[in-house]
Multidrug resistance protein A (Proteus mirabilis), 149 residues
Amino acid sequence: MQEKLLPRAKAALDVAKEQYNANQAIILTTPIAQQPSVLQAATEVRNAWLALQRTKILSPAEGYVSRRSVQVGAQVAPGKPLMAVVPVTGMWIDANFKETQLANMRIGQPAKITTDFYGKKSYLPWSCTGIRYGNRQCILTITGTKCQW
């Protein structure tokens, strides 16, 4: 029985060697960058890079996030508001002080503003850009102690 299988096995071995030599000839003559497995891997890397780029959402303005309606990992849809951004440039604060507090204030003097973004205290660097007189409304207005932005 084994004598009958030996010629078949030798023939299968010869066919396998021929296929191996043919594949080697193709592999050795084809540049690595043009081999199908390399091209497929490059396509997968490119697709993964594009998917990563689509996960980043850049703000149109530099500023502080004041109201966020989306969490990390959530899927978003076009047109859905994700957050509100308070721009850093063009922002100002009107502060009312008593006349007795103005004695040590100067234009250009640095100021440290305390906010309660996200329920924790944040300190923002500011400077005094001007001092002007108040009006009766400033005296009569009662301001709250908590930000409700």
